[in-house]
Amino acid sequence: MPLKITFLGHAGFLLDDGESVLAIDPFLTGNPVATMSAGDIKCTHIALTHGHADHFGDTVAIAKANDATVIGAFEITEYLGEQGLSKLEPGNPGGRIDLPFGSVAFTQAFHSSSYEGRYMGMPCGLVVSMGGATVYHCGDTALFSDMKLIGELHRPDVACIPIGDRFTMGPQHATKAAELIGAATAIPIHFNTWPPIEQDASAFQPEGVSVRVMQPGDSWSVA
Ligand code: NI
Ligand code: MN
């Protein structure tokens, strides 16, 4: 089946190819816009962009409940090992990991990464190849010109781009990011979860890119 993408709210997604389900940044408990709870998530894999609580979220509970493999920065997987998880795939920017459904590559992201005061390694973007489609989840990041290079190297079909400002790009820089990446479709993320990152998504208007604003719980299939 074509890749089905479900938005969990904030920066979280489920990617489903009919056999494997990859949860990205599954932050549900304490997420004011989430429509699903951690117990609703059925997945085979979890991938994390970085360690901040609004991304790390319910990873430990979901991984344990589903016996799921977690893909993330080396320091995040070390921490997860201490929490009793053993199915771990550590990585770092520049690297790619082949997985049963395809692959996950780590890109740089200009941000920080910690959890409960502990250093969690480099913040990352993730390029997921799954179900015949390629999705570049930028993670939390500022704009950087190598987004053009990431677009050339990975040819993503879909880019998930933060537009909330303050902690990441705002709509103006995110518009430039979408144009540099060159994916056919861009999904704005990391906005309207809380007042400090309230944004009007209509200000995100990249040229030549179709913008798909997803509400938490929405799904669509990448044709
Ligand atoms: Ni963050
Ligand atoms: Mn964040």
What is the fold's blueprint, element by element?
Elements: E1 4-9, E2 12-16, E3 21-24, E4 45-47, H1 53-56, H2 59-66, E5 69-73, H3 74-82, E6 88-91, E7 96-99, E8 102-108, E9 114-115, E10 118-119, E11 124-130, E12 133-137, H4 147-154, E13 158-162, H5 171-181, E14 185-189, E15 210-211, E16 219-221
Parallel strand pairs: 3-4, 4-5, 5-6, 12-13, 13-14, 14-15
Antiparallel strand pairs: 1-2, 1-16, 2-3, 7-8, 8-11, 9-10, 11-12
Helix pairs in contact: 4-5
The structure holds nickel (II) ion and manganese (II) ion.
Describe what you observe in this structure.
With 223 residues, this protein is of the alpha/beta class. The protein has one domain: Metallo-beta-lactamase, Chain A (4-Layer Sandwich). The protein has five helices and 16 strands. It has a seven-stranded mixed beta sheet, with helices on one face. It has a seven-stranded mixed beta sheet with strand order 7-8-11-12-13-14-15, covered by helices on one side. The chain is globular and about 45 Å long. The structure holds nickel (II) ion (NI) and manganese (II) ion.
What are its keywords?
16 strands; alpha/beta; 223 residues; Metallo-beta-lactamase, Chain A; binds manganese (II) ion; seven-stranded mixed β-sheet; binds nickel (II) ion; globular; single chain
Could you write a compact summary of the structure shown?
By secondary structure, this protein is α/β, with parallel strands linked by helices. The protein has helices at residues 53-56, 59-66, 74-82, 147-154, 171-181; strands spanning 4-9, 12-16, 21-24, 45-47, 69-73, 88-91, 96-99, 102-108, 114-115, 118-119, 124-130, 133-137, 158-162, 185-189, 210-211, 219-221. It is globular.
